Amino acid sequence: MHPKLIDIHTHVNFNAFKEDGPEIIDRTLKGDVWMILVGSQIDTSRRAVSYAEKYPEGVYAAVGLHPIHLFEDHFDVAEAEQTAGVPSYTTRPEVFDHDAYKEIAMHPKTVAIGECGLDYFRGRDTDEVKKAQQDTFREQVALAREVKKPLMIHCRNAYEDVITILKEEKADEIGGDIHFFAGSWDIAKQFLDLDFYLSFTGVITFARDYDEVLRNVPLDCVMVETDAPYVTPVPHRGKRNEPLYVEQVAKKIAEIKNLPEDQVFRQLVENTRVCFKI
Ligand SMILES: [Zn+2]
């Protein structure tokens, strides 16, 4: 089977979909869109795997500890993620447990380690927080190398440090994706040199800051995602995001790159299958 598109980073395994997660997954598959459910802590990572194993194909998991989950932190979704209708929450601190993550990382439906990385946004840039994030990120790069699966990386206001760690930890041996890429073309080139892909969200449908990178980046280094329930694309702004809306992101890439939609859709799927060995 060859789907129309693959949403490579979505959170139907989060509490925002607690009531209707399986319904949303079924609807997405019926729309000929596949998805990678991404965990951000041990419980959401386990839920991603347990959803994925219910489907013979089309639903996959990424397991990891997100950098904002190391310390208790209040997260204002409306402000931080430009998304209406998703409640704010306070994070529960977690210490990375290698063995617990390794167990789910080895599951055949797990296609990546993450989301992991660095997030120095809004006060998360004290020495203590940065050190903890960097140590935890290094441990997850090591786990990815150990189980030989690619990385799903979250990076906010920390591109230089992420690049340094990827190089020091030899992450180019496994590769992966820089999720929600928001850096400059100069930063983008450094990730491409490390054999990483860049993925883009619905934000490209309503903000023009991404156009230059999108015009420059080769189509075979790009993937698409929704990051649902966050950053809902135009024309669905104001609603909870969901994986089917990845089509709006892919269409916008075709428009910015001035290429036929069917060619872009096919290449995006191909890239995802190569990167995550789906
Ligand atoms: Zn995410």
From TrEMBL:
Superkingdom of the organism of origin: Bacteria
Q: Which InterPro entries match?
A: DNase_TatD-rel_CS, Metal_Hydrolase, TatD-like, TatD/YcfH-like
Q: Which UniProt keywords apply?
A: Hydrolase, Metal-binding
Record's GO cellular component, any one? Answer: cytosol
| GO MF, one example | metal ion binding
Which residues bind a divalent metal cation 1 per the record? 9, 11, 115, 227
Q: Which residues bind a divalent metal cation 2?
A: 154, 179
- Name the chain's protein: Hydrolase TatD
